Amino acid sequence: MAEYLQTVCAKYAIVDKIQVNTDAKEARWLEDEQVWEVTLQHLMVGAGDLSEEDRVLKVKEQGHSAVYTYEEKIRCKILISAVGGLVQPKSWPENIPGKDDFKGEIFHSARWRFDVNLKDKNVVVVGTGCSAAQFVPKLVTEYGAKSVTQLMQSPPWVEPKVIPPLGENWWNKWSPTLNTYIPGFNKAMRYSLATVLEYDFRLFRPGSFGERERRKAEADCLAYMKSKAPEKYHEILTPNYGIGCKRRIWDPNWYASLNDPKIHLTTLPLKSLEEDTVTLGPGRNYPPENVTSSTSTDKITIPADVIVLANGFQTTQWFHPFKVHGKGGQTLQDVFEERGGPQMYMGTAMDGFPNFFTLTGPNCFTGHTSVIYTTESMVTQTLKFVKPLLNGDITKIEVKQEAQMKWTTQIQSALRKMVWADTRTKNWYLRDDGWNSNTYPYTQLDFLYRCSFPTWRHWNIAYTQKGFLKKWTKRTFVLLAWTVAFIDIYKKRTSGGGLGLNGLLNRWFKRGLLVTASTLTKLAKNIQ
């Protein structure tokens, strides 16, 4: 991945445009100058890999210079946030005591500690999401852990891993050659995969069709689970909510790994930590305690040398800890709080924040396909706004408040009907109050179309003189073309004649020159 990124940067000659080991602390819109002022913090080497919580802790223990080297302010006409949503890992649960008493290591899977030796260690894993499913099978086989205890709140829906045509070994060997030397092969494969994944959106839809499709998929997933996982786990691995409500997992051998006697899965709740042990129970996270079950609820204490958190990210705290101050000094977080929750028009812009755009902002994520597809759509849209700014055609562009609020109302209304609103389990899409700031309630084809053809009337645009002339020149030509076409059609119908294609183009060109010259003259006088 690093080699690929380096190749792309070199190909497009942007290496000198990138600042590494740099953190954006805050940004302020300067109305008088019509620019953004961004405060940058330059980091010590390696500090960029730390979460915000870890940086704060390190500063507290070792001083400011242990994390930051110096601070500077820069100004820019256009500000784009491309940090995404899965950035800041969730911290240790505040309601679980004993963290300071624990003598072992605690780290998040997103900030993996390669310096921690797991060989012959008792490892406790908190979480059963996509990340945990990928690394848990390797803790014993590759890292040599003595035991692994995985704590689960509720079971995920798990689908079989997608096997490439002719098998993984064949594909790994020959796909680079096919993609390199057969014209169009890579695009054909990508479009085929995108089509298959887009079809999965049916699982999230409301109504009888969506419910019927979910039941089919759930039956297939349960059959797969029972064929791979030990029978003793079948009950706690059977979800009681609709497929798609939580992020699905394409099985990276997690089910099969549960057959290893060194790996233990439990739904007993984590209660406390001691020096070298963890206390679980009494009670259980799943099945719900009001449901009759043979699953144990007894309190137990197990040995623990290392704890790995796979409890997700702070997905509902958008732009945290980056502070973006718009008109009047109000921050994005202030606006979110006033309006009920994180929201942006098309996940891209917010009124009161001119020339500010985001990639993969609120309500852009999907539960069925790659976020790369989403990101590319948003890049397409953002460039349509950025290019006229860079070309000097406009000085400022800002989404209208009415359009932004109407969009949010539409999105939240649609989301309440989707499978993600299922209250039988928790997911990282929703806040505790039910506000969904993550998922998009329509297909990605729909999103691509909206991004490709922006609704310009939803935007307040400040044109330069050059941009104003270009705008009306374009409109004049379009209007002229339609006018000439309709006149020719009318004459042809009434008189049986018509100019024909050559005559039509000739007349359009001549009239275009005259009308354009006249229009430009009038516009120039008006501007003066």
TrEMBL record:
InterPro entries: FAD-bind_Monooxygenase_sf, FAD/NAD-bd_sf, Flavin_mOase-like. The lineage of its organism: Eukaryota, Fungi, Dikarya, Ascomycota, Pezizomycotina. Belongs to the FAD-binding monooxygenase family. The keyword Oxidoreductase applies. This is Putative flavin-binding protein. Keywords: FAD, Flavoprotein, Oxidoreductase. Gene3D superfamilies: FAD/NAD(P)-binding domain. One of its GO terms (molecular function) is N,N-dimethylaniline monooxygenase activity. It comes from Botryotinia fuckeliana (strain BcDW1) (Noble rot fungus).
